[in-house]
Design brief:
Blueprint: H1 8-21, E1 56-64, E2 69-72, E3 77-79, E4 82-90, H2 96-120, E5 127-130, H3 134-146, E6 152-156, H4 165-168, H5 185-206, H6 211-214, E7 216-224, H7 229-232, E8 244-247, E9 256-265, H8 267-280, E10 284-287, H9 293-297, E11 303-306, H10 312-315, E12 321-332, E13 340-342, E14 353-356, E15 360-364, E16 368-369, H11 378-395
Parallel strand pairs: 4-11, 5-6, 5-11, 6-10, 7-13
Antiparallel strand pairs: 1-12, 2-4, 3-4, 7-9, 8-9, 12-15, 12-16, 13-14, 14-15
Helix pairs in contact: 2-3, 2-5, 3-8
Bound molecules: flavin-adenine dinucleotide.
C-alpha cells in the first residue's frame, strides 16, 4: 500500500506528526490559530526607561486566610455614649482594587439594615469609615451616593492617599491571590457575587462619561497559552468572558497565547478622584491613629466601618491576616499603543506581569510572605532587577527563560 492509498485521515495524521517532529508548533493539518489582533503589532515596553519618580515600589497585600472579612458584628457594642455597630471590610489580599466596589455595595446593604434598627431605637445615625485605601474610599462613596446628607466621616492614620497600599497597586481587574480562599462551591458563589457587583459599578462609571477621571479603562489582557484560574474558574464569564486563543500580538513574543477582556482601575487616578468627590460632598476627613479596638469604639459615630486593610491584624487581633509583599517597577509609557496587559506569568510559571496604564507601565512579579517591610534593602534591589529581566525575556520571545 503506497502513501497515496492510505485512508485520508491517517495520511493527514502522519503528515502532521512529521511536521511536529520537524519543529513546527502545530501538526500540519491543524489550522494555526489566527493572530489575536489581525496582524497589528503592539509595541513592547522599554524595560530600560524607568519612571522618573519612585520607580521601585514595595507593598503589603492584606491577604486573609478564609477570605475577605465582610461582616457586621452581630452584637452591638455598649459604650458610655450608647450602642455602636461595627462592620468589617478587610483582607482583600491581591484583589482589593477588583473587589472594592462589590464589597462596598454589600456594606451599603448592611448599613441600610442598621439605619432601620437605629431609627426604631430613636437613635440618630452617624457613620465612621476607617481607612482611606480603596476599600474605605469606595465604601464612603457608595454610602454618600445613597444617603447624601447622612453624617459621614473618614478616619485614617495618614490622610494622604499616596501612603496607602491601594495607591501603589497595579489596578488590574482580577481576583488574583484570593481565589485559594474561595474553593468551595459556596465560597465561589460569594466571590462571584463580589465580582459581579464590582463589574456593575465599573460599567456604570464607564458609561458615565467620567471614566478617564476615575482612571477606568478597558484593557485586553494577554497571557501565554495556559490556564489562568482566577479568570477561567473563579470569575463568572459574564464578568470576564472566556478567552480567545491565537498568536500573541507582539514583535518578538509571538507564541500562541490568550486574550481576555479586562479593566484597568488605576489607583493613582481613582483614589484622588474619590477623595475629591467625597470632600465636595461634605464628608469629613480626620487624621487619627487607632491603637486598639477600645480606641475605635470611643468614636462618636454609632456605625463604624473598619476598612483598615492589614492594619486590622493589630487593631482587631486578626491572626488570619498574612502580609504578602509585592515588588513593582514602574516604567515610562513611550508609545500610545502600549495599552494592554500581559499577565499570568512565564512558561515556567514564574510570576511576571506588565500592566500598561494611562501614563506609565507597571512591571511586577513577587508574592513574598513573612516580611512586612516596605523599605527596599539590598535583596530587594536584586528582586527589582530580576523583575525587569523577566519582563525583558518574555517580550524578547523567551517565555521559558524567567528566573525565580
Ligand atoms: C504590588 C501590589 C500590586 C497589586 N495589584 C493589584 C491589582 O492589580 N489589582 C487588584 O485588585 N489589587 C491589587 N493589589 C491589592 C490591593 O492593593 C489591596 O488589596 C488593597 O489595596 C487593599 O486595600 P485596603 O483599603 O484594604 O488597604 P490599604 O490601602 O492598606 O488602606 C488601609 C487604610 O487603613 C488605614 N489604617 C490602617 N491601620 C490603621 C490604624 N491603626 N489607625 C488608623 N488608620 C489605619 C491606613 O492608613 C489606610 O488609609 C496589589 C497589591 C500589591 C502590594
Amino acid at each position: 500500500m503506497t502513501d497515496t492509498t492510505l485512508p485520508f485521515s491517517r495520511r493527514r495524521f502522519l503528515q502532521g506528526t512529521l511536521a511536529v517532529a520537524g519543529g513546527a508548533a502545530f501538526p500540519a493539518f491543524a489550522a494555526r490559530p489566527s493572530h489575536l489582533r489581525n496582524g497589528e503589532i503592539l509595541p513592547s515596553p522599554d524595560f530600560s526607561l524607568l519612571r522618573e519618580t519612585a520607580p521601585h515600589l514595595i507593598g503589603i497585600r492584606p491577604h486573609r486566610r478564609g477570605g475577605v472579612r465582610l461582616a457586621l458584628e452581630e452584637q452591638p457594642i455598649e459604650t458610655s455614649s450608647g450602642k455602636k455597630y461595627l462592620v468589617h471590610n478587610y483582607g482583600h489580599g491581591g484583589g482589593g482594587i477588583t473587589l472594592s466596589w462589590g464589597c462596598a455595595s454589600i456594606v451599603t446593604e448592611m448599613v441600610e439594615e442598621l439605619l432601620v434598627r437605629l431609627r426604631q431605637a430613636r437613635e440618630t445615625p452617624s457613620i465612621a469609615v476607617l481607612g482611606t485605601g480603596v476599600i474605605g474610599l469606595t465604601v464612603a462613596t457608595e454610602l454618600r451616593r445613597k444617603w447624601p446628607t447622612l453624617p459621614l466621616s473618614i478616619y485614617a492614620r495618614d490622610l494622604d492617599v499616596r501612603s496607602t497600599t491601594s495607591f501603589l497597586a497595579g489596578g488590574q481587574f482580577e481576583p488574583s491571590g484570593v481565589i485559594h480562599e474561595y474553593r468551595s462551591e459556596e465560597k465561589k458563589r460569594l466571590l462571584a457575587l463580589y465580582l459581579r457587583r464590582s463589574r456593575d459599578r465599573i460599567v456604570e462609571i464607564q458609561n458615565s462619561g467620567q471614566r478617564t477621571l476615575f482612571g477606568v479603562a478597558e484593557r485586553k489582557n494577554y497571557t501565554l497559552d495556559h490556564g489562568i484560574k482566577a479568570f477561567d474558574e473563579f470569575t463568572p464569564h459574564d464578568v470576564v468572558p472566556v478567552h480567545r486563543r491565537g498568536t500573541l500580538p507582539f514583535e518578538k513574543l509571538t507564541t500562541v497565547g490568550r486574550e481576555y477582556s479586562n479593566w484597568l482601575m488605576n489607583p493613582t487616578l481613582l483614589l484622588p478622584k474619590l477623595t475629591a468627590d467625597l470632600v465636595k460632598a461634605s464628608v469629613q476627613f480626620k487624621q487619627r491613629l487607632f491603637e486598639s479596638r477600645k480606641d475605635v469604639m470611643s468614636l462618636p459615630e454609632n456605625i463604624i466601618i473598619n476598612c483598615t486593610g492589614y492594619g486590622a491584624k493589630k487593631l482587631f487581633g486578626d491572626e488570619n491576616l498574612v502580609a504578602q509583599r509585592g515588588h513593582l517597577v514602574i516604567l515610562r509609557k513611550t508609545l500610545p499603543k502600549q495599552f494592554y496587559f500581559f499577565s499570568g506569568g512565564c512558561a515556567n510559571r514564574v510570576i511576571s506581569y506588565v500592566f500598561c496604564r494611562q501614563d506609565d507601565i507597571v512591571v511586577g512579579g513577587t508574592v513574598q510572605s513573612g516580611n512586612e517591610s516596605v523599605t527596599p534593602d539590598e535583596e530587594d534591589a536584586l528582586i527589582f532587577q530580576r523583575i525587569l529581566a523577566n519582563g525583558r525575556e518574555l517580550f524578547a520571545g523567551h517565555p521559558a527563560a524567567c528566573r525565580t
